[in-house]
Specification:
- Keywords: Cell membrane, Membrane, Transmembrane, Transmembrane helix, Transport.
- Its main location: membrane.
- It is found in: Cell membrane.
- By secondary structure, the chain is mainly alpha-helical.
- It has one domain.
- Helix content is about 85%, strand content about 0%.
- About 45% of the residues are buried.
- The model has no long low-confidence stretch (mean pLDDT about 80).
């Protein structure tokens, strides 16, 4: 299950950001809920390095600078939340967050909300929610995908901005994660084994992105994510 999760983590970095939600659910099933976010963060950073190299010239850095304050606010709120909840509460929280994000994605598709103005309130809400969900459940992909679609980016700019966004956000999460004791030596040993799998998944995702459309992947991602939340909610 960890190998599958590592492959999905890599694919999420270079092809379909929403797959990270499935990977987050798998990690949380195998490992203690809180510690799973720590090990996944290490793997995400490994995938981020390949992603930003691939799309190093394709990001909208002006927009990224404008998101800094709201994203950091969400990350801090997520870190505080994690400090005061139990393992069982954390597991259920991850499931609820993933399920809500799936519902948000379905609602967006049905309403065809791809022309939302990229205004300041929208930017603040999207940034704070992305920071919180990525800190708590490593699942900020659906939020940022909706926001970047609203900005009407080209495909390359969309992928490049997403890659740099999550690299910077994950880097900012690292001190909080370490201070919460969520990265343990035994988990680093597992992560060392899984990093090559993440990189392989990222390379495969880059190749798949040239051949398959999001319209093919998105329904499958939504269905699989819904299924993956059930064990977390019932635990």
């Amino acid at each position: 299950m960890l190998i599958v999760a590592a492959l999905l983590t890599g694919l999420a970095k270079t092809a379909i950001p929403g797959l990270a939600s499935i990977a987050a659910a798998l990690y949380a099933l195998v490992l203690p809920a809180k510690e799973s976010t720590g090990m996944m963060l290490v793997l995400l950073l490994a995938g981020d390095l390949l992603a930003i190299w691939t799309y190093r010239r394709d990001a909208d850095f002006k927009l990224l600078r404008r998101l800094v304050v709201s994203v950091l606010t969400g990350v801090v709120a997520g870190a505080i939340f994690m400090r005061f909840v139990s393992q069982a509460q954390m597991r259920k929280s991850i499931g609820i967050i993933l399920l809500l994000l799936v519902m948000l994605t379905i609602w967006q598709r049905r309403r065809k909300l791809t022309n939302i103005p990229a205004n300041k309130p929208m930017r603040a809400i999207a940034g704070a929610l992305a920071g919180f969900t990525t800190m708590v459940a490593n699942a900020g992909g659906p939020v940022t995908s909706m926001y970047f679609l609203a900005c009407k980016f080209s495909v390359k700019t969309f992928l490049g901005t997403t890659a740099w966004f999550f690299f910077l956000v994950n880097l900012s999460k690292l001190p909080f994660t370490i201070s919460l004791g969520l990265i343990q030596p035994q988990h680093l040993q597992i992560a060392a084994f899984l990093v090559p799998i993440v990189l392989f998944g990222a390379l495969a995702g880059r190749a798949l992105a040239r051949r398959l459309t999001l319209a093919v992947f998105e329904p499958l991602v939504i269905i699989t994510t819904v299924i993956s939340t059930l064990p977390l909610l019932l635990a």
